[in-house]
Design goal:
The chain is built from 13 helices and 14 strands. The protein has 2 domains: 267 residues, 3-Layer(aba) Sandwich (Rossmann fold); 101 residues, Anticodon-binding domain of a subclass of class I aminoacyl-tRNA synthetases (Four Helix Bundle (Hemerythrin (Met), subunit A), Up-down Bundle). It has a 5-stranded parallel β-sheet, with helices on both faces. It is 44% helix and 15% strand. It has 409 residues and is of the alpha/beta class. The longest helix is centred in the N-terminal third of the chain and has 19 residues. The two termini are 31 Å apart. Strand 3, helix 1 and strand 4 form a beta-alpha-beta unit. The radius of gyration is 22 Å and the shape is globular.
Length: 409
């Protein structure tokens, strides 16, 4: 599976700061020192509907992580998956009378278009769950053969008790885990499971549903969590720098994935930092495909909204915050991009070196994009009110905003 084209990242003078970011597993800021190649895995979409602003906010957060790392002169090895086989996809395809694979292909193509328009840097590997199945099957077999998994009526479940570190990502109690498991794709009430929280690794073939050769597992399809584990271990290995996604993935997805990987390898941790973006609401409720209260990036673009304004609307909120999309949020972003473009369109302006430092410092401090935007606002206000004499300053600001914030002025 191919990703989307990369926008050019302008080179800036000097060097960025090392990133300090909030780690869900430790509950505080951690300083990341990835070495010459920073490794990041971000969980991708289940392509049964178009990209909504909740998706965009999540991928914007991890795009900033990449930009901070690139500004430190590191390379970035970024991997993202596509969950192109799952119950919600099959249910939507049946509802709409469309082939499930065609639906996945159509929505993945639209996702690529949205990411390109928003200037999100693409992953080095963009891997669908279906194409990863040949690598998933051996991992499930290894877990089963090691006693970390068991069969139940043809399905294969992971035993959470096989990982002594289970629970150390989300730090939830058993009752909260059970509740979220039921809400987020698990089956805690299924009779015969050793532990209600045990997640499925391999689902035996169901009549009328797609299935694949699972070797000694029989025909079927993989569970959700093992898909990402197989892809991450194959391309990044254990101990990569950041595991990213929305805050609703901390449990069960990232918790279970970490335990799968740790049971497979005997190493700990799977990732050095588990980083989670907040949720975006509409009309008082979290944007959700199941609720249908969505604002789609593609629809905003069709309505003629400048993608730079969409991106600025996302950047106006700290990535870990839960916030609500409103008409005013969009209008503020449109006004901001107008002010910034007016400021950089003049032939000279106030010196910009201090501004570049402010943006770098803000982003290195747990991706504080609102502080970075406020710094650019101050420079733009000074420029639009008084101007300046540094003929190179507007170009420096334009390149810095592009390189560090992903906004083309």
């Amino acid at each position: 599976m191919h990703a989307w084209p990369a926008s050019e990242v302008p080179a800036l003078p000097g060097q960025g700061r090392d990133l300090r970011i909030h780690d869900t597993a430790t509950g505080g800021l951690v300083s990341l020192d990835p070495g010459p190649v920073a490794r990041i895995y971000v969980c991708g979409i289940t392509p049964y509907d178009a990209t909504h602003l909740g998706h965009a906010a999540t991928y914007n957060a991890f795009d900033l992580v990449q930009r901070v790392w690139l500004d430190t002169k590191r390379q970035v090895h970024y991997v993202q998956n596509v969950t192109d086989i799952d119950d919600p996809l099959l249910e939507r395809a049946e509802r709409d009378g469309i082939d499930w694979a065609a639906l996945a292909e159509k929505e993945t193509a639209l996702f690529r278009e949205d990411m390109t328009a928003l200037r999100m840097l693409p992953p080095r590997q963009y891997i669908g769950a279906v194409e990863a199945i040949p690598g998933i099957v051996p991992l499930v077999e290894r877990l089963r053969d090691a006693g970390a998994a068991y069969e139940l009526e043809g399905d294969v479940y992971f035993s959470v008790e096989s990982d002594p570190h289970f629970g150390e990502v989300s730090h939830l109690d058993a009752a909260a885990m059970r509740l979220l498991s039921a809400e987020r794709g698990g089956d805690p009430d299924r009779p015969g499971k050793k532990n209600p929280l045990d997640p499925m690794l391999w689902m035996a073939a169901r009549e009328g549903e797609p299935s694949w050769d699972g070797g000694s597992l029989g025909r079927g399809r993989p569970g959700w969590h093992i898909e990402c584990v197989a892809i991450a271990l194959d391309h990044l290995g254990m101990g990569f720098d950041v595991q990213g996604g929305g805050s609703d993935l901390a449990f069960p997805h990232h918790e279970m994935g970490a335990s799968h990987a740790q049971a497979l390898t005997g190493e700990f941790p799977m990732a050095k930092a588990y980083v989670h973006a907040g949720m975006v609401a509409l009309h008082g409720e979290k944007m959700s495909k199941s609720k249908g209260n969505l604002v789609f990036v593609s629809q905003l673009r069709r309505d003629g909204v400048d993608p730079a304004a969409i991106r600025l609307a996302l950047l106006a909120h700290h990535y870990r915050a839960d916030w609500e999309w409103t008409d005013q949020v969009l209008q503020d972003a449109l006004d901001r991009v107008g002010r910034w473009r007016a400021a950089v369109s003049r032939p000279d302006g106030p010196p910009a070196e201090a501004l570049v430092d402010e943006i770098r410092e803000a982003l290195a401090a747990d991706l504080d994009a609102p502080a970075a935007l406020a710094a650019v606002d101050r420079w733009a206000a000074l420029q639009n009110e008084r101007g300046g004499t540094d003929e190179g300053a507007p170009g420096v600001v334009s390149r810095a905003v592009d390189a560090l914030l992903g906004v083309a002025l």
